[in-house]
Amino acid sequence: MIVTLTANPSLDRTVTLSDALRVGEVQSALSVREDAGGKGINVTRVLAGSGVATRAVLPLDADDPFAAVLRSAHVPVLAVPLPGTARANLTLTDSDGVTTKINLPGVTRTAQDAATLIDATVRASADADWLVLAGSLPPGLSEDFYVDVITAVRAAGASAPRIAVDTSGPALRAVVERGRPDLIKPNDEELVELAGVALDAELPLPEAVLAVARQLVPTRVGAAFVTLGGDGAVLVDPDGAWFGTPPPTRVRSTVGAGDSSLAGFLLADVAGAAPDERVRSGIRYGSAAAALPGTQAPTPTDLLPGDVPVRPLAL
Q1: How far is CA 176 from CA 8, 166, 222, 235, in A?
Q2: Using DSSP, how many helices (H) and how many strands (E) does the chain show?
Q3: Helix (H) or strand (E) holding 170
Q4: Which is nearest to 126 in space by CA: 149, 150, 156?
């Protein structure tokens, strides 16, 4: 079982344009679609579509139309009854796959809301292999919210799940400083912001990412799976590091690709795969997501053909 927590869910509206976005002009859209979104929900959708037991914990008002979107997407959820309507995020994508994204802040949450979400997550995670804490935090929640979740889950019993975190900014920094997660999944820009050091321009990108990630792994986090967009991904754990590159991909939307990469990584992990296979699976699912419109969750039938070379890294 893999449990995800999405504290700030969203209704993702994706508008596909025939041409590049022209700011300040009127343009016609080719299509529009709506998907249940939020990083943890995206991870759960991929996991469920691949046949792995999963559950998404999220705040959900009984009167929120977002509930119908979740049902239509067959997302297995543990809905935490809290007031407020899920935010709507807007994505504009042109024919070349160039994406412009506008994210709304979400419902302002109280300290009591935070406590209710934490209690629900502890209960849901009792028998889980992994707990994924993913996405931005809504207004009102402190940057330590994910740290508080980790503390509560680990205090609940000896069989606490491993914990993966996919967020950014102050929330990610707090988790790394005080939460000791088992896995983080930043992209290269988020890794640089987190570590406070730039990538070494004299090194190839994978080795430059490894040099920064080694400042965190294993002293402050168990492992780092760093996604690099079209350049692939790097895994760094206490035993080594690996770099993989994606298959040829016609990009239609990059929204949710990182979430799918994390899901692919976890799919391989719970199947007992070796580190290089976890990297390969993460890249395959991320590439498949990028080739789909909107924030569709890729299934095994959507995985792209072509090799995903993975090699060990060393400095």
Answers
A1: 20, 11, 10, 17
A2: 9, 14
A3: helix 169-178
A4: 156
User: What is the per-residue pLDDT for 272?
Assistant: 98
Among residues 259, 269, 276, 302, the one annotated as catalytic is 259
259 catalytic residue (yes or no): yes
Domain span holding position 123 = 2-22+29-312
Q: Please give the Cα distance from 87 to 217 (Å, whole number).
A: 35
Q: Are 107 and 84 in contact (CB under 8 A)?
A: yes
User: 224-255 in b/e burial notation, b at 16+ Cβ within 10 A?
Assistant: bbbbbbeebbbbbbeeebbbbbbbebebbbbb
134, 259 Cβ separation under 8 angstroms: yes
Confidence of residue 116 (pLDDT cuts 50, 70, 90): very high
**What is the C-alpha separation between 283 and 308, in angstroms, rounded?**
8
pTM beyond cutoff 0.85: yes
| Residues found in the chain | 315
Number of domains in the chain: 1
Residue 265 sits in a domain whose CATH number is 3.40.1190.20
Residues 109, 113, 114, 117, CA torsion sign: negative
